[in-house]
Amino acid sequence: MLIPFELFAMLVLANGAPVVVAKLLKGHWALSVDGGRTWRDGRPVFGHSKTWRGLAAGSLSCALFSLVAGLGFLFGAAFGLLALIGDLISSFVKRRLGRPSSSRALGLDQIPEALLPMLLALFWLPLSLLDGLLIVALFTLSNIYFSPILYRVGIRRHPH
């Protein structure tokens, strides 16, 4: 069954497409999701690196991959959007903890963006809970270990 591999690939796309598109487009269409607003604590809601362009890139890349993989455009779009909502939740929590934008928080940076879309996949697809949890764990570990490599080759702006 290829579904676990496809879901892992979609998590990588949702996480990586915004980075690639940001590199290609530089500052174009980089309107931040929070519009530069701050929360009650005076800190940014999400931070300047969370953009509408990134949400669109991650969701659309997952939707197109999912369509080609036979899982459907709608599933892919929802999966990608949930991954990026998980990323926004992580950023929100990190800002409340006083962590700067793009700072590293092991687990918090990976688990919400993998777990939220995996919950959708568990209800939408013939996927076992064990497979879903293994995909979340694999994504978390691969993100932790491969991000520094992507930084060294110039793909990521930060080593995490």
Question: How large, in whole angstroms, is the Cα Rg?
Answer: 15 Å
Which structural category do the helix and sheet elements fall into? Answer: mainly alpha
Q: What percent of residues are in strands?
A: under 5%
Main sheet overview: none
Query: Could you name the ranges where pLDDT drops below 50 across 5 or more consecutive residues?
Result: none
What percent of residues adopt helix (DSSP H or I)? 55-70%
- Give the number of helices: 5
Q: Total domains, how many?
A: 1
Report the average pLDDT across residues. Answer: 91
Q: Distance N terminus to C terminus?
A: 31 Å
Shape: globular
Give me the count of strands: 0
Topology order in helix (H) and strand (E) letters: HHHHH
Protein model, in words:
- This protein has one domain.
- The mean pLDDT is 91.
- The longest helix has 24 residues, at 73-96.
- It has 5 helices and no strands.
- It is mainly α.
- 64% of the residues lie in helices and 0% in strands.
Quick structural summary:
InterPro entries: CarS. The chain is mainly α and 160 residues long.
List the defining traits of the structure above.
160 residues, mainly alpha, 5 helices, membrane, transmembrane helix, CarS
Strands, helices and their partners?
Blueprint: H1 3-25, H2 52-69, H3 73-96, H4 111-124, H5 129-152
Helix pairs in contact: 1-2, 1-3, 1-5, 2-3, 3-4, 4-5
Pfam families: CarS-like
Transmembrane segments: 63-85, 106-127, 133-151
Keywords: Membrane, Transmembrane, Transmembrane helix
